[in-house]
Structure formats: C-alpha cells, structure tokens
Amino acid sequence: MSKRVKARSTTGCAEGPYRSVDHFDKLAKEDLPGKDTLDKLFTFAVERFGDSPCLGTRDVLSEENEIQPNGKVFKKLILGDYKWLSYNQIDSLVSQFGSGLAALGQQPKSTIAIFCETRAEWMITAQTCFRHNFPLVTFYATLGEEAIEFGLNETGVSHLVTSVELLETKLKNVLPNIPKLKHIIYVNKKKMTTEGFPARLSIHSMQEVQNLGALPEHARKEVVKPQPSDLAVVMYTSGSTGRPKGVMIIHSNLIAGMTGQCERIPGLGPKDIYIGYLPLAHVLEMTAEISCVTYGCPIGYSSPHTLSDQSSKIKRGSSGDTTVLKPTLMAAVPEILDRINKNVMNKVQEMSFVQKMVFNLGYQYKLKQIKRGYDAPLCNALLFNKVRKLLGGRVRLMLSGGAPLSPATQRFMNVCFCCPVGQGYGLTETCGAGTITEVADRSTGRVGAPLICCELRLRDWAEGGYTSKDKPNPRGEVLIGGPNVTMGYFKYESKDEDFFVDENGQRWFCTGDVGEIHSDGCLQIVDRKKDLVKLQAGEYVSLGKVESALKNSSLIDNICVYANSDQNYVISFVVPNQKRLTELAKQRGLVTDWEEICIHADMEEVVLREIKEVAAKIKLQRFEIPAKVHLSPEPWTPEMGLVTDAFKLKRKELKNHYRHHIERMYGGK
User: Fold this and answer.
1) 70 — pLDDT class (breaks 50, 70, 90)
2) Domain AMP-dependent synthetase/ligase spans what residues (predicted)?
3) 260 Cβ contact partners less than 8 Å away, ≥ 6 residues apart
4) What b/e string do you get for 83-103 counting C-beta neighbours within 10 Å, with b at 16 or more?
5) Of the candidates 91, 192, 190, 111, which has an alpha carbon nearest to the alpha carbon of residue 152?
C-alpha cells in the first residue's frame, strides 16, 4: 500500500494534471448524496446521532497567579471534567440563536462576523449561520487591531460575535472607527458592563439572543435555506505578507473540500474523539471540526496553553486536556510537533547513562521497523507508552498542516507516539484541500497524492530553475483545480489573477509554492516563489529551504533567514532553545539571566558554529549558510505579530522588527 501508485497524469504529460487513481474518471463533489450545503450536513448528523455527545468543554474550577523567579506573573488553572452538549441540544441552540439574530435585524445573505477563540460557541455560531444563510466572516483571535478594523469595515457587518476578553482587550479601541456595526454578541456566560462603548452599539450575551429567538413570535419565522452556490464563509487570512485578505468560500466549495479530506481519514466516526485547539478561523481546523460533527465524532475543546499536563496555564500536579479527554484524532501545525519533540528529547537528556542508552537503542530499532512497514510492540510497551500518555495515550492518527513538517519530527512522532502522522497540503483558497498522505504511506518529507476532490498541475518557473522536464521528477509551481477552489478575494479583484477558469469551466488556484511530483503521484513541496532571493554574485537562496534544514538543530527553536540582493551572504535571526543554550553558557562560565545570554557575543558564536555543523551534515551550499546570527530571547508568537496563527514567518514584520540588527550584521549598509 505504501509503494502503490496513488495518482497519475490524466494527459500522460509530465506537467499533469494529476488525479487520485481512486477517483480518476471525475472529481468528487460531495460525500453524502444530496447533502450539498453545510446546513444539510448538520441536519443529517442530528437525525443520526441525536442524544450522542457532540461538543465538550471543561469548567474552570479555580485560577491562581504564580510568580516566576524573574518576577513575571503566570495565570494557572485547575480545570474539571469535560461537560458535553448533545447533537439535539446544539440543534436547539442553533435554531434559537439564528431566530434571535434575525430578530436583531440580521438578514439572510448579509455578512456577520466572528472574532473569537476556539470554543464550542464558535462552532454553534458557525452552524447557526450555515442554517440561516448568514455568510460568516472569520478572523483569527490573534489578529491586530488594525487588521480587525480593516476587515470589519471592508465586509460592512452590522453584527459581531466575540468574547468578553477580546472585546475588552482588542475591540474596544477600534469600535468608534467601525460605523456600520450595530450589535455585539459576547459568548461568555458572565454579565459584562457596557460602559465606555459607543452609544450606537447594542451589546448582548449569547444567552440573551437565544432567549429572544425562543420567543414564539421569532421562533415561528421561516428560515431561508442556503443554496450550494451561496456564500458560506469569508475567511480572513492573517497572511505572511501585507494586509489580510478575505477568501470567499461558497457551500459547495467546503462540501467538496471535506469530501476529499474525509476519504483520507479511515474509520472516522462516533468511536473517535477529536481535540479542538487550533484556531477555528483557520481552514484546516474549521473543516476538520465540521467533518467530525458530520460523522458523529465528539469534539473536546482545548487551547495550546492547556493542552497537556506541562502546558503553561495548567497548574503543576493537575491534568491537562489530553490527559482528561484521551483523544484519538488530532490536528497540529509543525511548530507544535517540533515543540513536543524537543520537550521529550530534553527529558531524555536528563536520564541516566543506562536509561538514555536503552531509549536510543529502542528508538533506532523501532525506526528501522517502521521504515520496513512493521511495528515494535515490545518497545512500545517498555519505552514509548509513557511518552504516548503525554497526549492521552489513545491518538491513532495525527494530521499536520499549515507548513512543511521536517522528516526528523515526523519520524519522532511515528516512533514515540505509536501512530501515523499524515501531512496535508492545502490553502484557504482551496478550502484546505489539496493533498494528504495516506495512512499506509511510510515516506517522509512529502505531502501525499491529490485528494479525490481536486487535481494538480505543475507550471514551469524558469527563473527559479524548475520545469516539468527536470530529472528524476517533474517540478514547477503547484496549481490546484477542482470544485474546492474558492471564488476569489472579497473586494480585492486585483489579487484575483491568482485564480483562473480553464476551457472546461473548472476553477484553478496558483499557489506560489514549488512542487515535485514523485513517480507514485505524491507531491513534495520544495520551494516557494516568494522565498527566493538572488544574492550579489547571482546565486539563488531559498529562505524556506534553509530554515527547515536548520530547524533540525536541538539548539534552535525557531529561525528566520534573511538575504539582501546587494550582499553576498545571508544572515539569520534565531529563537534559541533556552534550556540547551543556558547549559552551554554555564559551561563557558556565563551565569546570568536569559536576556544577557542572548546578547552575549560568545553565545552568538556558539549558535553560529552549531548552524555550520548542521548545514554541513545536510549538505547546504556555502552561500546558503548564514554568516551571522542574532539571538532573540523571546519566542515569536502570533500575538507579537511576527508569525501567523499557523506559525508561518511574517517576513516583512520580522524585517521591520530586526531592522537595526540587519544593518549591524550587514556592516551598517
């Protein structure tokens, strides 16, 4: 199964289009016959799973402040068990909330916005909008004030669903600049004060709007059902460049995209449990959760700060969300998997010599077995079950998306967590659908074959040196075509050249990513057009390629490589691994606080030496290896605005943030 041909060209040409061999004659548009809109999927699920658990949330039992040695205060939580809402209960809430919004003047086919963290109320709001044909405008909870103001004004929404925290910290300052906004609905149970908000705004709790919708005069009003061609979502991407863009997604786009995704997740159903913690405003998480709801798989809500027992907001000695929920399915972005990998390996370094030797022997043995297509049950029982319990102990499948996952991290998760780790490739513009690796595929570094809902083409990019005639495999810019390709950008026609319609009426999206199609039809992403920089001497450097290679170092938590066309070398900004660098500083007699370690010239040299060693092992070209480095004591987070919610680097913002260091490293030029 691992070695079978999974996709082939429909024309016999090297550039494609390539289709899955499992659905070769035509592209799949829907999974369940006749269920061609999102509200029909949910109605189908309610009829089928009625009183079964659907969405679960943990109560906060207590909160306390913990003072760190450096004087910083961290909020720590003790959380209870998961409390579940059944399909029937959610069905009732969706009807009431929709009728309540209509009573407040929300019209069918008029946009309504959600700016909220990942939680059950987000999914309830989404299902409400799908049923009542209110196109839902989504924003990441970590977007800055300026981007939120821009998006709300561009879409002209009159109603906004949010949380008290975001309302008070991010929205309050920009509300006077959003004249069309009339109603704000907050999802929290607690009552909030409305002082200090513009007088034209009405502020309601979600419960109040549901109560309004339950009144007979509102509940009896006829619901205008959506059509497959109606707008379902305007999804604002935080974007790694420029201002956010709203991607227009119709019902049939999402139905097609999820049809392709679900075909690659064998056995999805009520026996599974999914943990939801990634941003629901990201297409990967939204489509994963709608698919789970459709197939009866309960979703337990979490956050990156409460995910495991070791997470930053979990009080020491109490249980994180994975320990309590014991999920079987989990989506992740590479940044989170890299973090898990480094945390486990740091613990291994603390073991005694004998324990470390046993772990490493077991790891290498199981790695060989996995590459041959086998398992190692004895190693699992003796060594890896303990590691597996960090994520609850029952995960049967993990899916990584949003950015390339390094082969080393993928193998680590395979070995230590005893489950396949699939990689997916897709974009907001393709409903998150493009490719996903099959469970049986044992290879690393690839993102799988095209899903049954779409096909791929390669377009030559001569400037970058990628063509369909390349050996051993054809390469070029990846184009994705099919019913999952969205309708373009909201009021942003100038960017719509990324989309085109072919002679058969099929929509295509030009991704800007450079791919290579292997002989079995699987795709590997090898470059990105925007990441290519030409140095002074004419050599091309792929920034993304260098970054993913150097991230394999245990001394590097994150890295951004920067190059300037009027210079002949590249430089880098590095978020070092605090534990490892502190140990190395101690060995050199440098005992001081973390910030001092990071600005010390000796420690920059240490990291630079490590970079050169890693680069030599993976055979980077001399001109690709960073010649200078700046160390950042603070990790880059979406809140800082230096990375997107999928933890992709925002190069423009990083360049501005480190402008004076760039000048220093390039000798004041």
Assistant:
1) low
2) 76-490
3) 28, 433, 436, 451, 452, 453, 454, 484
4) ebbbbebbbebbbbbbbbbbb
5) 111
**Residues 607-622: pLDDT tens digits?**
999 999 988 888 888 8
Domains in the chain: boundaries = 7-27+329-393+395-528, 38-301, 538-665
Report the alpha-carbon distance of residue 545 to residue 557 in Å, rounded.
16
Distance CA 62, CA 79 (A): 7
Tokens 């809402």 belong to: 85
Name, in order, each residue with C-beta under 8 angstroms of 413's C-beta and a sequence gap of 6 or more: 337, 340, 341, 398, 419, 421
pTM of the model: 0.86
Q: Distance between CA 385 and CA 380 in Å, rounded?
A: 6
The CA dihedral of 609, 615, 621, 626, to the nearest 10 degrees, is: -50
- Measured CA to CA in angstroms, residue 439 lies from 284, 421, 422, 423 at distances of 18, 8, 7, 10
CATH T-level topology, domain 538-665 = GMP Synthetase; Chain A, domain 3 (3.30.300)
Of how many residues is the chain composed? 669
For residues 529 and 240, give the distance between their C-alpha atoms in angstroms, rounded to a whole number.
13
- CATH number listed for the domain at residues 7-27+329-393+395-528: 2.30.38.10
At 182, is the pLDDT very low, low, confident or very high (cuts 50, 70, 90)? Answer: very high
DSSP state of 126: H
Q: How far apart are CA 510 and CA 531, in angstroms?
A: 16
Beta bridge partners of 481: 455, 508
**Total H helices, total E strands in the chain:** 21, 28
Phi, psi values for residue 135, rounded to 5°: -60, 125
**Sheet of 245-250: strands edge to edge?**
202-205, 183-186, 159-162, 112-115, 136-139, 231-237, 245-250
Element (H, E) at 405: none
Q: Give dist(CA 202, CA 186) in Å, integer.
A: 11
Architecture of domain 38-301 in this structure: 3-Layer(aba) Sandwich (3.40)
CA distance 39 to 131: 5
Would you say 201 and 182 are in contact if contact means Cβ atoms under 8 Å apart?
A: yes
For Cα atoms 462, 468, 471, give the angle at the middle one, nearest 5 degrees.
Answer: 105
Q: What is the DSSP letter of 271?
A: T
Residue 633, both tokens: 């004591």
Confidence of residue 669 (pLDDT cuts 50, 70, 90): very low
How large is the angle between the packed helices 87-103 and 120-132, nearest 10 degrees? Answer: 60
Determine what percent of the chain falls in helix, strand and coil, rounding each to the nearest 5: 35, 25, 40
* Cβ pair 455, 482 in contact under 8 A: yes
Report the distance separating Cα 28 and Cα 19, nearest Å.
11
Identify the bridge partners of residue 455 per DSSP, sorted by sequence position: 481
Q: Kindly tell me if the per-residue pLDDT of 57 is higher than 70.
A: yes
